[in-house]
Amino acid sequence: MEYQLHKNFIKSYRKFSNKLQKAVKEKLILFCSNPFLKDLNNHSLTGKYQGYRSINITGDYRAIYKEKTENYVIFVLLGTHSQLY
Questions:
Q1: How confident is the model at residue 29 (pLDDT cuts 50, 70, 90)?
Q2: Which of 8, 53, 55, 64 could be cross-linked to 40 through a Cys-Cys bond (beta carbons 3.0 to 4.6 Å apart)?
Q3: How far apart are CA 41 and CA 27, in angstroms?
Q4: Separation of alpha carbons 79 and 61, rounded Å
Q5: Is residue 28 within 8 Å of residue 37, measured between CB atoms?
């Protein structure tokens, strides 16, 4: 699986602590190996994010992405559950 990081995702990522940035990197590596690992809790979204999917980074942090092709996605948003939804 290949991915691209949207500028909004990168902007949020840069504000995170080193510990949280490390967690994001680890989850993206897991995502590339298998996007539907149980630890990622990969699920589709509804409402204003219809057509997007979300994965868990930590207990409260999520990464939202959009599938472009079967093997290519763009991660668009990163933040806490309350910030994103």
A1: very high
A2: 55
A3: 11
A4: 5
A5: no
Q: What is the pLDDT of residue 43?
A: 97
- CATH assignment at residue 57: 3.30.2310.20
Of 63, 54, 55, the residue nearest 13 (C-alpha): 63
Find the length of the chain: 85
Question: Using CA atoms, how far apart are residues 79 and 4, in angstroms rounded to an integer?
Answer: 17
Domain count, the chain: 1
pTM assigned to the model: 0.94
Q: Quote the domain boundaries for residue 16.
A: 2-84
Task: Supply 18's token pair.
Answer: 């080193």
Cα 68 to Cα 85: distance, rounded to the nearest angstrom = 22
Contact 79, 58 (CB under 8 A): no
Q: How far, in Å, CA of 67 to CA of 1, rounded?
A: 11
